[in-house]
Amino acid sequence: MDEAAIGTVVDAMYAMISGPAGPRDWSTQDDVFHPDCRQIRTGVDAQGTPWRLSFSLAEYRANADALLAEMDFFEVETGREIRVFGNIAHVWSAYEARHAPSDAVAERRGINSIQLYKGEDGWKIIHMIWDNERDGVPLPAVG
Question: Rounded CA gap, 137 and 132, in Å?
């Protein structure tokens, strides 16, 4: 039961960020994300130095809408592992991103590490951090 509910939340997260160029439909954000959620984008610069950007929900919406204003972006999950203990859960979610769903080759692949909390209103994402595959960091098998 919990794993199915968690899967529904993760599916909704991917649906929310994917779509043609322009602002996303954030109407389901409160159903998917806990109000205290932090979303953290990570990467490395040209010299290989790690960096991270940390966002509140409002900051992430503004950042995503600016990045995707003129770019089609479709992210799909390619593997999932869920662990649940009491009212906490962790989802290890592999993804591929494309500019069009029909693109033969993914523009990027990576892992979303998603933590969820089960409160009175059900499972919600309370923390999410992700990184992309790159030279020296191959995507592991997930699921």
Answer: 8
